[in-house]
Amino acid sequence: MGLISNGTTLLDAGALDSGVATGAMTLIKTLTASSSGTLSFVDGSASVVLDGTYKEYIFKFFDIHPATDDVEFQFNGSSDSGSNYNVAKTTTAFNAYHNEADSSTNVGYRPFEDLAQGTGFQGFQDNYGADNDQSGVGTLHLFNPSNTTFVKHFISRSSNYHNADYAIDCYVAGYFNTTSAIDAIQFKFASGNIDAGTIKLYGIK
Amino acid sequence: MAIISNATTIADAGAFSVSLGAMTHIKTLTASSSANLQFVHGSSSVVFDGTYPIYMFKFIGLHPATDNSSFTYQVSTNGGTSYGVNTTTTYFRGQHEEDGSSSALTYVASDDIADDTGFIPLSEDCGNDNDQNCSGTLMIFNPASTTFVKHWLNNMSATQRNDYAFNEFMAGYFNTTSAINAVKFEFGAGAIDAGLIKLYGIKDS
Question: Which end of chain B is less packed: N or C, by CB atoms within 10 Å?
Fold first, then answer.
């Protein structure tokens, strides 16, 4: 039985009517690190959706705190449901930085942080500090990962507290150079555990 | 009493059980020759605490009363009694003059902040011709954390007073482990003649 108000169906058949505005951004999954080696979002596992349901996915990560000082936070994609994270990528990387002592600033391209058809993990930011109050945050947009015609683009912006007390504003973009669907994304530090932090996956309708 | 449709609980105990979207509008403030606009947790229906892990401000059509004034902000850890938390930031921008004679991508050291408590410029040198304004987005991550510093990311598009398009990027962190519970926006000189600031929360679960 439907719920109808003033002639408008609000809900029926176990769901809100498609005409009822519910917002375009849907939380899919939250993973919380606790001395975790990796955090992985695998389509079809643990209620994760990472397929053709949405055309854009957004990961938001915050309070990411490494167990080891001076390490790089990274990600990679999988086309075999997380058995391997090694998809070829070509990427760009640049950042702006400024230290608390006000003695060093710049914006510049980071050639040693980009990839040219590399299958290794792509870094968001290097030199994470592991002091108790140090952490990093950011977003990663992944577009149409289930497409089997085109490569899969991604765009990231992130900010971290550098181990030498810098504010770092990092920009990474590129594409998974595959026409296979990307069905899993993994996050980790280049060395040591993710001591603490949260990563949320959203789908954009 | 629950609302159940086709054996699916749609609403119960005063809340919806189905997803209504992850991005929640909290508050809109409209400037009208306003000296400043403030979002204070617990005041005027503003939520700015641990309810959401990420807060997003949208600036729409901010028009300064005074030419060549910078749009700025600061935060409070005491419910808006005072604004002035130490922050370290980066600032760079792309710029292009309307007559096509000048363009650049550059870090601007005079517009960043090194561990200081002053108001933070989000948009520099705003023009106040009738059609000039600035718009953009500011995200603040987990302001209620009492463990980590509080990171933020900002991007503005602005009409500079000498008819440049400015694409401005700022990021940084409030260097405190106290919870941030209020945010204040103002121009460096003169009132906010017109414009909207909207606050959204990005849902936790």
Answer: N
Is B42 inside any structural domain? yes
Which pTM was predicted?
A: 0.89
Closest-CA residue of chain B to A29:
B205
Q: Which of B88, B91, B106, B169 to mutate to test the interface with A (most CBs of A within 10 A)?
A: B88
Question: Which among B3, B5, B145, B170 is the top mutation candidate for probing chain A, defined by the most A β-carbons within 10 Å of its own β-carbon?
Answer: B5
Which residue range is the domain that position B92 belongs to?
21-202
Q: What burial letters (b/e) apply to B132-168, b meaning 16+ CB within 10 Å? A: bbbbbebbbbbbbbeebbbbbbbbbbbbbbeebebeb
Instruction: Indicate which CATH number applies to the domain containing B89.
Output: 2.60.120
Q: For chain B, which residues score pLDDT lower than 70?
A: 19, 204-205
Task: Tell whether A92 lies on the interface with B, counting CB pairs under 8 A.
Answer: no
pLDDT digits over B156-203, tens only?
A: 999 999 999 999 999 999 999 999 999 999 999 999 999 999 999 998
Percentage of chain A lying above the pLDDT 90 cut: 86
* CB-CB under 8 Å, B88 with A99: yes
ipTM of the modeled complex: 0.83
Q: Alpha helices, DSSP H only, in A28-175?
A: none
Residue A114 C-alpha from the chain's centroid: 17
What is the number of other CB atoms lying within 10 angstroms of the CB of residue A171?
19
Domain membership flag for residue B15: no
